[in-house]
Amino acid sequence: MLIDCQSCPGRSRLCGDCALAPLLLAPTTGLPLDPAEADAVTTFASLGLISTAEAMTVRARHEPTAARAAG
Predict the structure, then answer these.
(1) Residue 8 covered by a domain
(2) Is the pTM of this model over 0.90?
(3) What is the pLDDT of residue 35?
(4) Which distant-in-sequence residues (6+ apart) come within 8 Å of 59 by Cβ?
(5) pLDDT tens digits for 1-55?
(6) Which of 29, 39, 45, 68 qualifies as a FRET site for 22, CA 20 to 30 Å off?
(7) Would residue 22 count as lying in a domain?
(8) pLDDT of residue 25
(9) CA separation (Å) from 45 to 52, 58, 64, 65, 70?
(10) Number of domains the chain is built from
(11) Following DSSP, what letter does each residue of 5-63 receive, concatenated?
(12) What is the pLDDT of residue 1?
């Protein structure tokens, strides 16, 4: 897969917060996307940031959060 940062509309302004790389590099085995994630992927595809084929293979992955002490 190739992510073409040269044609990204947010290039140079939003690179530090780019969600595409971790989203697209997620393994093809994993959890189904929740509605908000699916909407985001659909938006990325409609804007041409990812292909329709790539959008169809995106899966979620579980990343446990670290426990924090309250107070």
Answers:
(1) no
(2) no
(3) 92
(4) 26, 27, 28, 29, 30, 31, 32, 33
(5) 456 777 777 777 777 777 775 665 555 567 888 899 999 999 999 998 888 888 8
(6) 68
(7) no
(8) 56
(9) 6, 11, 28, 29, 40
(10) 1
(11) GGG-TTTTTSGGG--HHHHHTS-SSSBPPPHHHHHHHHHHHHTTSS-HHHHHH--B---
(12) 47
The residue segments making up the domain with residue 36 are: 31-60
Q: Is 16 exposed, middle or buried (0-12, 13-18, 19+ CB in 10 A)?
A: exposed
Structure tokens belonging to residue 63: 């990343």
Report if residue 2 sits inside a domain.
no
- Per-residue pLDDT reduced to its tens digit, 50-69: 888 888 888 887 777 766 66
Residue 52 in tokens: 């329709």
* Domain assignment of residue 16, yes or no: no
Q: Is the CB of residue 57 less than 8 Å from the CB of residue 28? A: yes
